[in-house]
Design goal:
By secondary structure, this protein is of the alpha/beta class. It is 33% helix and 17% strand. It binds S-adenosyl-L-homocysteine.
């Protein structure tokens, strides 16, 4: 921390970490020009935001001290405070981060051979209230900013030893397509070679099927991956599990997914006695073929899932076979981090206790922010 004299200015609030790479570079160049500094400094400074991140501008030792001080006075370099870190026996690690306003979000790091997949949050809480999901039960709190979404990846880089992911999935807390503007910027920060440099094919956005979000994602040129949380093969059943189905019915989600010109994954959480019967597999196979989708069968994570029980292993295996014989590529997802409550929203719920959803009414309206 720099100590300042009696002429102390209020702390800077402008945050370069909220800007996409081009916008951040432009802002830095303008700032440097105002000060009569050479514009190549913008490349040096930007590299220290994401590519080789620093905790504070004072750590950018390749810059003159006066310039580091000027950066500190002009810009806020936001951090996420680590509240809890838990390690599973299977190597999965779960991080609970506290943001500036005290809100808590979760990030999960899942090692698998030489890959590390990071599961990141896009909202604090969620408005969608899927019946089996712990995040839904806490209600919608607020959208995250790019500095808070990409910031989760940044914070793991800053740990010692650093955790550097090979893959990113937007499968933490929240519905990414209902915070599209921030997610759009975040995708650039994750993918841009000047920032995190993670290949687009290694970045997956998971959605319940918010149609404008699917359209917005397909408008991007990069090959980002799309995952759709289907969870039921008929409107009737889906509406009982996912209230969003009234706003975006299954037929519309399937049509939008079939029109998406890149590989799509269906996420299907196996709920004992609810959506795991042979007739469901037959219906799901039809939808998956229409979308040329790959199906991921997800064993229900047991913690905090009111009233639902996981399907037996043998039922999941039979369901997978029924899909495969109908020509649908299917994988059974291994449950990871069971001992650390590593499913959507479970760690925060463990910490804060279950609460009634707040602001459920005002946030029911689905929109792409
Ligand atoms: N809102 C987005 C992304 C966050 S959830 C979406 O719904 O796709 C990421 C995935 O975890 C979703 O498929 C969600 O349905 C699933 N999920 C939520 N709770 C779960 C639980 N208890 N067990 C297994 N999967 C769960």
């Amino acid at each position: 921390m720099t100590t300042q004299g009696p002429m102390t200015q209020p702390p800077a609030t402008e945050n370069l970490l909220d800007l996409a790479p081009d916008a951040a570079m432009a802002r830095l160049q303008a700032w440097l020009t105002e000060r009569g500094e050479p514009s190549y400094r913008s490349v040096q400074i930007f590299a220290r935001l994401w590519e080789r991140p620093v905790r504070a501008f004072s750590e950018i030792t390749e810059l003159p001290m006066a310039l580091r001080d000027a950066l500190t006075r002009s810009f806020h370099l936001s951090r996420l405070e680590l509240a809890t870190r838990q390690t599973s026996v299977d190597g999965t690690e779960k991080f609970l981060f506290r943001m500036d306003d005290g809100q808590l979000i979760e990030t999960v790091a899942i090692p698998d051979g030489d890959r590390i997949t990071l599961c990141i949050s896009s909202q604090a809480g969620c408005a969608l209230q899927c019946a089996f999901c712990a995040t839904g039960a806490m209600g919608f709190q607020r959208n995250l900013r790019p500095s808070e979404i990409a910031g989760q990846v940044r914070e793991l880089h800053l740990m010692s030893p650093p955790i550097v992911p090979t893959n990113i999935v937007f499968m933490g807390m929240g519905e990414p397509m209902m915070n599209w503007k921030a997610v759009d910027t975040t995708l650039s920060l994750l993918n841009d070679a000047r920032a995190m440099g993670i290949g687009a094919r290694h970045i997956t956005i998971s959605t319940v099927g918010v149609l404008p979000g699917i359209v917005a994602l397909s408008a991007r040129r990069e090959q980002f991956r799309l995952a759709i949380s289907i969870h039921a093969p008929s409107d009737e059943l889906r509406a009982t599990l996912m209230p969003v189905n009234t706003k975006y019915p299954l037929a519309d989600v399937i049509a939008a997914t079939a029109a998406f010109d890149r590989r799509v994954t269906f996420e299907y959480v196996m709920l004992g006695g609810v959506n795991d019967q042979p007739s469901h597999a037959t219906q799901l196979a039809q939808l998956a073929r229409e979308c040329r989708a790959f199906v991921n069968l997800i064993p229900l994570h047991p913690g905090g899932t009111m009233g639902f029980i996981p399907s037996p292993t043998s039922t999941i295996a039979a369901f997978a076979r029924a899909l495969r014989v109908r020509g649908v590529e299917t994988a059974i997802r291994r449950s990871r981090g069971l001992d650390i409550a590593a499913a959507c929203g479970q760690l925060r719920t463990e910490r804060l206790g279950r609460r009634l959803p707040i602001a459920a009414n005002e946030d029911r309206e689905i929109h792409v922010a």
